[in-house]
Amino acid sequence: MDDLETRELRYFVAVAEELHFGRAAARLGIEQPPLSRAIRQMERRLGVQLFDRDRRGAALTDAGRVLLREARVALDTVAAAARRTRRSGDAKRPLVLVTKAGASHNLLQRLLDTFASEPGTPPIEVLLCEVGEQAGFLRNGRADVALMHQPFDDLAGFGTEDLCVEGQVALLPAGHPLASRSQLTLAEVREVPDLPIARWPRLDGSYPEGPGPEVHTQSQLAQLVALGKTLLVIPASSRAWQWPDHVAVPVVDAPDVTTVIAWPPSSRSQAVAALVRSAARLRDTALSSPGDHVLPG
Description:
Elements: H1 6-18, H2 21-28, H3 32-46, E1 51-54, E2 57-60, H4 62-88, E3 95-100, H5 105-116, E4 124-129, H6 134-139, E5 145-150, E6 159-166, E7 168-173, H7 186-190, H8 218-226, E8 232-235, E9 246-251, E10 257-263, H9 270-288
Parallel strand pairs: 3-4, 3-5
Antiparallel strand pairs: 1-2, 5-10, 6-10, 7-8, 7-9
Helix pairs in contact: 1-2, 1-4, 5-9
Pfam family, one: LysR_substrate
Family: Belongs to the LysR transcriptional regulatory family.
GO cellular component, one term: protein-DNA complex
């Protein structure tokens, strides 16, 4: 029988993340023997080994890695269903929009103002997150809609509407020689010996190889750039959080970034649909204005 209970999936995810049965049991608030038995029962029912075990702990097998990915999605879906169901019973609740802190600031402000001016629309609660976190908030039901960015964010499974296209800039320490340039190329940015490019985590949480520092928050990056320890190529609209110690220089051959509004395809929220329509009208108005080719980010 292939059916798995949410309790079993939570047990498995705890062990997979801790890679130690004792720590996982403490995290779950249960004893270790029943946790070990539950994992063994899952392995027997699925007909695969999920963990390689030794005295030091546990390591995921290939089958275990597959289940970890699927289990997280399944648990997020169950949690999202509960959150959306609870919120659906509150007619006065705000619409929750999640976006990366500092990104697409002007676009976000125009969208909020436009939506608020329409009669009968609910208030919008803005949830600011770090790089790449919007998809998780949509999938687990903590947010109703998101502003996301191609090609960087995980848009798999979401409904989307393109809103604007923008170039990218290199964020540099103000005192660096390259900060006086009017433009740069990607090759020039990658070959700065004293400013290795900062490394953001991939969608799976791992970091790409390279000499630059690992960062996962905007505040970390801002301070490291100001200290002359790193640089980064980012969408031009992300300059909204730029410090006085920073300079943004256009990178002429960097790929364009498309800002999209995204929502779960299962959403039946009239408020979400109204917000998407407002965003599309805002984009179309900008495109039809003389001299405007994109809605500024």
